[in-house]
Design brief:
This protein is α+β, with helices and mostly antiparallel strands. It is built from twelve helices and seven strands. Bound molecules: iron/sulfur cluster (SF4).
Length: 310
């Protein structure tokens, strides 16, 4: 079992939901219930979907373009997002995610919306709001001159790069939205957020990414300078795209040590609950249901949790 910032948060909210998503779900399993858990694990709320379309537009179109010396324009990015939204929405409403094909073989079109699967009507108002948020996030991104400078001046840009390293024998996984390497400056990690409130800072998540950049085995396209890097040299930026705010966090040696200790404690806590020791033979009944019953209403796994394990 692999620790990540998001899986730990999920474990804290509902151990059983964590189990379904991270241990039980399997596309390749013969057990139909495990296949079903995999499928349900792909479901997204409309709000998560709008964030995902924004991320994909930035990673697959904007950052990829800048990385090869092009100058993507806002209207092109909006067109890309609009087409992506349409294709994903059609894919989801036709329930093609139940075709049996794997997500990776379908590619960027793959989308499974929670309200479609659970027969909850989606209002035009909700869809319009989601689209307006995507458009606003992209507009703020392009209009932020200092953010664009930071990207254009980079020597290389790596989007959605998975990094992993070990703490006390447990693998820790981190997938920063973007790592920018510079000729003469230390690397900067960017995290895109598409939240209407954006009050909660994501400094701890970003610090985990910085630790991962230093401690993971360097990828072939990392510059040699990564070998001499100290974690506290890495710069980290949280970009609240709906609020048009970029928060830069300072890393210090003490904060790095504190974050590593916190991750180790989180892993220990999950070990105590039996999570890290459980194999795929474990059952959902080995894991506690949530202490926040209101969470069940929007839980992807409620179908199998309520029908098969209560
Ligand atoms: S339905 Fe409720 S208890 Fe079951 S996994 Fe989801 S959140 Fe947890």
């Amino acid at each position: 079992v692999i620790w990540s910032y998001s899986t730990y948060r999920q474990f804290n909210k509902c151990q059983r939901q964590w189990f379904f998503k991270n241990v039980y779900a399997s596309h390749a399993a013969n057990d139909p219930l495990r296949k079903e858990a995999y499928l349900l694990g792909q479901l997204k709320s409309i709000s998560a979907w709008r964030g995902d379309v924004t991320d994909k537009t930035l990673s697959n179109f904007v950052v990829r373009g800048i990385a090869v010396g092009k100058t993507p324009k806002l209207d092109q990015a909006i067109d890309y997002a609009r087409i992506l939204c349409r294709r994903q929405y059609d894919f989801s409403t036709a329930k093609k995610y139940r075709s049996g094909q794997s997500k990776s073989s379908i590619g960027v079109e793959f989308c499974a919306l929670f309200p479609i699967e659970y027969d909850i009507p989606i209002s035009n108002q909700e869809l319009t709001k989601a689209w307006n948020d995507i458009e606003l996030a992209l507009t703020n991104f392009f209009n932020n001159a200092s953010l664009m400078d930071r990207l254009r001046s980079a020597k290389s840009l790596l989007a959605q790069r998975a990094l992993s390293f070990q703490i006390n024998g447990t693998y820790v996984r981190a997938v920063p939205d973007l790592i920018a390497f510079y000729e003469n400056d230390p690397p900067r990690i960017f995290d895109w957020k598409v939240h209407s409130q954006g009050l909660k800072s994501s400094d701890q998540q970003l610090m985990t990414y910085a630790i991962a950049l230093k401690r993971a085995k360097p990828h072939k396209d990392f510059p040699d300078s990564v070998a001499n890097l100290q974690v506290e040299d890495v710069r980290i930026s949280e970009c609240q795209l709906l609020l048009n705010i970029v928060r830069d966090y300072e890393l210090t040696r003490d904060l790095v040590i504190e974050t590593e200790e916190e991750i180790a404690e989180n892993i220990f806590e999950m070990n105590l609950s039996g999570a890290m020791a459980k194999s795929s033979d474990a059952t959902a009944n080995d894991f506690q249901t949530t202490r926040f019953p209101e969470m069940c209403t929007t839980c992807q796994f409620k179908k199998i949790c309520w029908e098969n394990f209560l």
